[in-house]
Design goal:
Belongs to the CcmD/CycX/HelD family. The protein is mainly α. 61% of the residues lie in helices and 0% in strands.
Length: 67
């Protein structure tokens, strides 16, 4: 089976392309898992009861304003 003088280059290019595509798929899977964990953390935080609200402090008029 004669593959020709450029077979090494062509097979190398296909191998490199397959490696890059596999890396992109792996990165997408990792990112999806990270996003799912972040979403779960946000949902857990929003399900917690809110902290008690502080009472607002009434504003004071400046001294000598004749209140």
């Amino acid at each position: 089976m004669n593959l020709g003088p450029h077979a090494g280059f062509i097979l190398g290019a296909y191998a490199f392309t397959a490696l890059v595509i596999a890396g992109l798929i792996w990165q997408a899977v990792r990112d999806r898992r990270a996003q799912a964990r972040a979403l779960a953390a946000l949902q857990a935080a929003s399900a917690a009861p809110p902290p008690p609200a502080a009472r607002p402090v009434p504003a004071r008029s400046p001294a000598g304003a004749g209140a």
